[in-house]
Amino acid sequence: MRKPVLLAALILAAATPTVRAQDADMQKYINRAIKKGVAAIRAHPRDINDMYRYQGQEVGLNALIAWTLLESDVPPTDELLAKLTQAMRDRALQQTHIYTISVLLMFFDRLGDPGDEPIIEYLALQLLRMQTSAGGWTYSGPGLDRKEKQRVLELVARAHEQREKGEIGPSKLKPSERKPRAVSPYMAQAVEEIESQPRLAVLPGDNSNTQFAMLALWVARRHGVPVEEALVRVVSRFQRSQQANGGWAYEYDPLNPKAATRPVTCTMSCAGMLGLALGHGITRKKDEKKPADLKKDPYVKEAMRLMDEIMKETRDEKDVKLLAKPGYFHYFLFSLERMAVVYNLKKIGDKDWYKWGAKILVDTQHPTGNWYGEHGLADTCFALLFLKRANVAEDLTFNLMGITKDPLIKKKGPGKKSEPDPFELPKLIPKDKKKTKGALRGGGRLELAGFDHRSSMEIRDLRVRAALHARSVHPRRP
User: Fold this and answer.
1) What range defines the domain where residue 100 resides?
2) What phi, psi does 184 have (nearest 5°)?
3) Model pTM greater than 0.90?
4) C-alpha closest to that of 104 among 440, 392, 395, 340
5) Alpha helix (H) ranges present in 44-184?
6) Of the four, 46, 149, 163, 258, which is 20 to 30 A from 404 by CA?
């Protein structure tokens, strides 16, 4: 049993010579917890409880498992991961649930196989088609026509042949290190047609499905899908529905956005802050010398104040303020990590959020290697993704650098180097750019009919920027 040892180590932390030594010891326990968690996923039986819990979304659970394994340094050639990957390729185009579609897209993006580009584009178009008039997503929605599905199926079959010949395969680079794809004329036209169609007005959608969908759409930008107008609607949604205490609820009444139909929660408040960050990310120009300060955004300021209060009043997983249910703790950590890394925060309130969450996860890990809550095996995945700091929007973090400086970090005097932080975010740009060459196995390139890779990379439309600016200055009122 390692838990008593860990508790003793934490109690006697003052006896450790330096802070770095403490962090190094903690990292050993984190690494051990990750290893046990991965082993638990491998050994987990597909029991009746999971089938009930994920009825209709088994593919989404498999995608979450596969994404977690990838982030936990399991190679794509691993037998279990390879089986999951092929099963998801076979069933990806049949999915209609937002959670499933979103996680599938993020998994294929992380895998980096160019043969999966048509699947990523198809899933992104589905999300664009399913967005509601309130700028969010509910559990499912209308799919794409059969003609589009048949076109993608043909491209997937062609990619399978290339994969069998060893011409294409998973990338060795992180998504943020790969060159973004251009917007093809076909994709531009497809998105334009979707934008011209009426949106779902029956339901406003919920902020949990919306969190997954908006992250997936941000990821889709790297694959040549113009999603700016959809993300503008997301930002407008969170601006309209921010509650008096600065947070967000699971859902709200579109006719009276400031009156949430459910209580504000810490998890949905993280989703709201992430949505606001996406707005700044899509409107910031790369050559902008003096970008707007994200933390001076009035919506962000109110939300940050609430998050500071939540973390200050929280001691452990049993008393997290504004947590809907104790069993939602691991989902909260998942959302907290997504938001904090995008805002480049080392501390929230008076807490180093990562060390705080990591210590709780190490201490509460079951002897089987799992973490248990309301979401079954997904709780183990959420915990591992938190421990691995799996930032799917790493390019957004990089995009916002310079406007998300953490005021709580104290630097030493001039001329003195700050002590290295073992929990520092990884660098987004490889030191040796030459290493990026030949990252794809076989160095091959997927040939896709109907895609012009020479199209312009400039996809920020001035009317998108103007619309977002107008809504932020003059938000809609109920």
Assistant:
1) 3-407+448-473
2) -80, 155
3) no
4) 392
5) 48-53, 58-71, 79-91, 98-111, 117-130, 146-164
6) 258
- Angle of helix 185-196 versus helix 117-130 axis, rounded to 10: 20
Q: How far apart are CA 121 and CA 2, in angstroms?
A: 45
Instruction: Write the pLDDT tens digit of every residue in 140-169.
Output: 877 788 888 999 999 999 999 999 999 999
Angle formed at CA 381 by CA 379 and CA 387, multiple of 5 degrees = 105
* Structure tokens that stand for 474 in this block: 């003059």
Decide: helix, strand or coil at residue 74.
coil
Cβ burial, residue 53 (10 Å; 0-12/13-18/19+) = middle
DSSP for 331-390, written as a single string: HHHHHHHHHHHHTT-SEETTEEHHHHHHHHHHHH--TTS---STTTHHHHHHHHHHHTT-
Does some domain include residue 441? no
Residue-wise pLDDT for 122-147, tens only, equals: 999 999 999 998 899 998 877 788 88
425 assigned to some structural domain? no
More confident residue, 470 or 255: 255
Round to whole Å and give the CA distance between 20 and 440: 37
- Give the integer Cα–Cα distance in Å for 468 and 231: 9
Q: How far apart are CA 424 and CA 346, in angstroms?
A: 8
Let me know if residue 209 belongs to a domain: yes
DSSP alpha helices (H): ranges in 165-227?
A: 185-196, 207-221
d(CA 307, CA 313): 10
Contact in structure between 30 and 362 (CB atoms under 8 Å): yes
Judge whether 124 and 105 are in contact, CB under 8 Å: yes
Q: What is the C-alpha to C-alpha distance for residues 337 and 386, in angstroms, rounded to an integer?
A: 6
Give me the long-range contacts of 329-333 (CB less than 8 A, separation at least 24).
329/373, 330/371, 330/373, 330/375, 330/378, 330/379, 330/382, 330/383, 330/386, 331/267, 331/373, 331/374, 331/375, 331/378, 331/379, 331/382, 332/266, 332/267, 332/270, 333/357, 333/361, 333/382, 333/383, 333/386
Closest by Cα among 395, 391, 387, 380 to 64: 380
**CATH code at position 273:** 1.50.10.20
Structure tokens at 362: 């190490």
Task: Determine, yes or no, domain membership for 385.
Answer: yes
Q: How many structural domains comprise the chain?
A: 1
Length in residues, the chain: 478
